[in-house]
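Lab manual, section 2.4: Encoding a predicted structure.

Procedure: take the sequence of the chain (219 residues), apply the prediction step described in section 2.3, and record the output as structure tokens. A sample record is shown.
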Amino acid sequence: MRRLIPVHAIVILVVALLAGCSGASATPVPAATTAPTTAVPATTSPAPSGTAAPTATVAPTPAPVTPAPTPAPTEVPSATNTPSTAPAPVTGEIGAGLQIGTPAGGSATIGVVEVRKHPSCGGVTPMAGFIHVSVSVGYSADHGKLAISPADWTITDAAGQVSGVDPTITCERGSFKVHTLAQGGNDGGWIVFEVAKGAVGASLVYSSATGPVATWPLW
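Recorded output:
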């Protein structure tokens, strides 16, 4: 069974405790020690003197380009009539020799010995309205070499028609081939052309590498 403590006893005990507490010396609480404040010198960064903020650079406006003047066209002088370096063809006579210069700088004698007309030649019939003309020619290499060929010869007429040698036709004995004569050599033979019957002003023409050299009137 619990034992109850009287109320007055509790009051006396509380008073005694309060009295004991009030008599005890209070222990002072030390004041907070304030550490001396050390002044830190403020470091001031010197402002750059006279430094202006960069301003935008404006590109200069280019000066207008003046186009160069167009040169006036240079007048080209018209070509003057320069004489040809090749001499004009000389005219020969049938049955006589004719001295000429050679492309190599030498000299030679050429000639037309005889001219014959044939309605047909060597068993070959010419085209309708044409005849065969056989011509005997000769060469002599007087100074230097001389290249000879049946193709050196043509027959032309007043109308400008040109007839070349037909090497397939042989009317006469003694044709010659393409070759070169040594100095002092001579050769020749017959060549045959097919010419229009009505040709007027026909001439035999000898040409070298530089062009026509000599002509012989035929009819």
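Check your result against the sample. The helical segments are 7-23.
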